Amino acid sequence: MDGVELEILWSNLIGIVTERSKALQRIAFSPIVREAGDLACALFDLRGRMVAQANTGTPGHINSLAFAGAHLVRLFEGQCEPGDVLITNDPWLSAGHFFDITILTPIYDGERLIAYIGSTIHHTDISGYGIGAGARDVHEEGLWIPPLKLYERGVPNPVLHAIIGRNVRTPDAVFGDLAAQVSSGHAAAEHLIALCRRHGIDDIETLSDEIIQRSEDATREAIRKLKPGVYHGESQFDVPGGQVITLKTAVTIDAEKGGITVDFEGSTMQVPMGINVVLNYTHAYSTFAIRSCLNPELPNNTGSLAPIEIKAPLGSIVNCKYPAPVNARHVVGMYVPMPILKALHQVMPERVLAEGSGAVWTIQIQGKKPDGEPFTSSMFNYSGGMGARATKPGPSATCYPTGVAAVPIEILEAAMPIVFERKELRRGSGGAGRSRGGDGQIIQFRMLTDQPWLLNAVPSRLNSGPDGVGGGMPGKAGRFQINGQDVSEPRKLTMQASDVVLLETPGGGGFGSPE
């Protein structure tokens, strides 16, 4: 394709998905989506290949959406009609736990299918155990929606809507978020149809071929410039309950074909609590780590992801098999980049980070308002410090690798009877080094209630802090306390009205010798 024409069409595609993603974020009901940006939006061609993603979203959602979209296109090939909307939250087909619901809208110009637009967002509630790690198998964790049609020729599927409405604690919020996903998909479809008509093209297949092939070629060319070989990395961290998880990676760089393989052989096997990770989610954060170091300026699509292969033993904690519980899969999944970065430090030390605090500390609360009305909070989360960079300190209280923002405490206090007594940086918690690790943060809260309430909390790295790299010192470990007592429990906790919760998140590791 002509380079100028390609650039015009490409910028229009990015504009369509980004505008729709931001609109979805603005109108979503769930605070973790609206305030923190826990979502993804992407455009797919007729073969189910992700062509363009929005400029906002999390790596875990975006790169998992690439798989979910491909699965839905394949499963419904030849079965879609104008007005149909597809849905699933199958952990092994999409983003790894029930809370993340994927919506895929086939885009029709008249009766002609021209593309698909998809989104994945974190919903407030999906029944079951909640966001914690205490379930013993996946069926305790909530409502499983297999690949189905949420709408058929523009008409809501009454059976599916009835099942969803009766099986969640907050149906108004869930249906509000689903409506936001559906409406944003319809608006994106209108813009894409207008774009195709304006440029006289029937669909985006020729355009997607060009974009995907150029992206793959550029990624392979970047890999060919690296030193070939096999490089190893390992990370260890404790999870709720105190168990230590080990992630091992062997990163193989094939400079001849321009490919990278990441093998997690030797990592901890899956465990009987909800921190297991499906391969889609492992792939999402593995490819994010590599592409962030390799060619972050390149578009993220099926082409740029193709040269990177991810392997993990079936039944391991990063490739769990049914019926493993997975609702708190981020507890392990967000550590996936850490051993990969350690391996890449041997190849491109100037581009990697030291270990950071890893998984965000997620909180979900269930209780009753002063008037007796029950409530279930959306998930809210707090990060520790990022690892230091070669020439810059690590940012403090910054989510890496997920990139989500913290929900403002004012929003939380307005939504439920909670009061935050402290929220401040944890000064000095980042590891020393030529570049210092980012600091964690201190958060303290209590509930304004005279009745018991339930707390789901999944803190990690309470026993040892993130490693430094290149001679850098480790960051400080975290601390999770209730009424001044250290707690590390994978299960949902029953709290008393006067209980006070304190979080001190870990600091990031330092980069280079402090001297």
From TrEMBL:
Cellular component GO terms held in the UniProt record: cytosol
Domain of life: Bacteria
Domain Hydantoinase B/oxoprolinase: 2-514
BP terms from Gene Ontology: glutathione metabolic process
Name of the protein: Hydantoinase B/oxoprolinase family protein
Pfam families per UniProt: Hydantoinase_B (PF02538)
A Gene Ontology molecular function term of the record: 5-oxoprolinase (ATP-hydrolyzing) activity
Coiled coil: none
Originating organism: Alsobacter sp. KACC 23698
